[in-house]
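User: quick one, fold this
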Amino acid sequence: MSPDLRPSIVVLGTGFAAFSFVKKIDVKLFDVTIVSPRNHFLFTPLLPSTTVGTVEFRSIIEPIRVARSEVRYIQAYSRSADLQRKAIVCEGTADAQQFKLSYEYLVIAVGSKSNTYGIPGVEQHTLPLKELADARAIRQRIIECFENAASPSVSDDERRRLLHFVVVGGGPTGVEFAAEMNDFLVDDLRKVYPGLLAFVQITVLEGAHQLLGTFDETLQDYTRRMFLRQRIDVRTDSLVVRVEKEKIILQDGSAVPFGLAVWTTGIGPREFVQQLTIAKDRIGRIITNEMFQAKDSYDVYALGDCGTVEGKNYPATAQVAQQEGAYLAKALKQRVLGKSVQPFRYKHYGMLAYIGGERALADLESFKGKGFSTWLFWRSAYLTRLVSVKNKVLVLFDWFKTFVFGRDISRF
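Assistant:
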């Protein structure tokens, strides 16, 4: 097809769904433009490892411009969409100037944001864990808490507050951060802050009855036992009603003081999706058919966390988004060539989670694994799923460096 006659596709986002779509789309048939304020793809399964320096930040990102040289990238925010005229209003991140982009097909893959559920104080006093900037802020705050607690002018009660690290949310992200934080404490911080070890506490607050609610019950119980052995305090059935500057207030009226509170519970729609005049479910996700076409807007597609297939309940995970992106790239090719398009079929490969102390979980259809051997499997699985040879080498080097020299505790 002539380059001038190719249908135009505008892709919003650079997450798993968008990145997978861009890697698979036939650029001979389509003119593709990516719009996102983030100019890189982020391998989020290893994001908790970056909060303590087990893995460095740049080891798990891939610049979007090198994903496909034939694809155009614009660093900008998507502000609004005119679905009738097939145009997107964008705003440049550098100059804040607005401009319009026309499209023939629109792929919305903007992901989600942390859901605060309208709880007062969450946005002001807790840190989310969704982006590299979040991980860097958490890493800085951890060292700041220890340095402040090391001051001779600080009382013991204040040291206990400063060195109380609270994780709100007992899903995979929250559990993995708590595990990485405990490894950081046991392997590194106790050596450089020996006098502060008695004041440190890690607490996981979960509103449900159990951690890792989507995992097998035996693996949930194993995680709780492991956390108990590691002296990580797990408080289930603990609903947060308010967050103040230095403490979290629970539904039962109790207060949990903290030096750092990490919010990892739930996801919500981004502002762009919120303002779209399009059918959505009760939590704000775009409702689509099994080909990811939005209701009443068949040239608009929604992938990943910002969309939901009507009648299905796919988990909000990287593997789902990755499969959706690859499927849509193939489906659009078949559509433009006049071939029939088959509905999406999700293949579940199982779930993995790191729980600290060189122990991990694997919840697969044919295997429920836990322990050290599963940790080796966890590492090898994530290593093979990294998107480039460069990332694989960097992550391997980071793991080796951490094993030999420990984690870096500098703050800058």
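User: anything notable?
Assistant: The longest strand covers residues 72-82.
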